[in-house]
Design goal:
188 residues, 4-stranded antiparallel sheet, 1 helix, mainly beta, 5-stranded antiparallel sheet, single chain
Length: 188
């Protein structure tokens, strides 16, 4: 009988033991990281070619007064950004040949969604180097904002125009334009 009681007691213990719960300890952790502000220019060309001027293509007088025949070269590029950055376009050196300088104009166009125009995308003049033709012969800077986390497509157009025949020397003209993407823009 003792064996039966011992065996019964052992069976009871084995059946009750798995139902005994032990206190568990748990803790929720916060995991964090930081993504630094970053923006970069993509697809920027090393050279923009403006078609050659041939002959007398200087200022012309018409019914609307004097105007210049402008020739231009352009290219598309992208700005990839994860914050509200600014894009600055600077004419660091206008088109120059020795001491002779010719009109150098820079326009920046932005590809924007524009359903009001009847199609989903449209080029919109976003900024330019500003000023009149005399400003084009010196340094000029324009700034625009890159709106937050996005990949934005721009078109940079560099244009040039001649004065009267005697106002610029014949030969090769070179200049420099700098594109800079940086911290937040302050634009009025």
């Amino acid at each position: 009988m003792r064996r039966v009681l011992s065996l019964s007691f052992l069976l009871c213990v084995l059946m009750v033991l798995p139902t005994v719960s032990f206190a568990a300890d748990s803790h929720t952790l916060t995991v964090q990281t930081r993504v630094a502000e970053f923006a970069e220019l993509r697809g920027v060309k090393e050279t923009v070619d403006i078609p050659d001027f041939i002959g007398n293509e200087g200022p012309l007088t018409g019914e609307d007064g004097d105007w210049r025949l402008m020739k231009s070269g352009d290219f598309q590029f992208n700005v990839s950004s994860n914050f509200d950055a600014s894009l600055t376009v600077s004419v660091d050196k206008p088109l120059t040949n020795g001491t002779s300088t010719i009109l150098t104009k820079v326009d920046l166009w932005k590809l924007v969604k524009d359903s009001a125009a009847g199609w989903p995308w449209n080029w919109r003049l976003h900024c330019w180097d500003g000023g009149d033709s005399s400003a084009y012969a010196s340094k000029a800077t324009a700034m625009t904002s890159v709106d937050g986390v996005e990949l934005t497509t721009y078109l940079l157009r560099v244009s040039s125009g001649l004065g009267d025949i005697h106002e610029q020397a014949a030969g090769e003209y070179t200049g420099t334009v700098t594109l800079t993407v940086s911290g937040s823009a302050s634009i009025d």
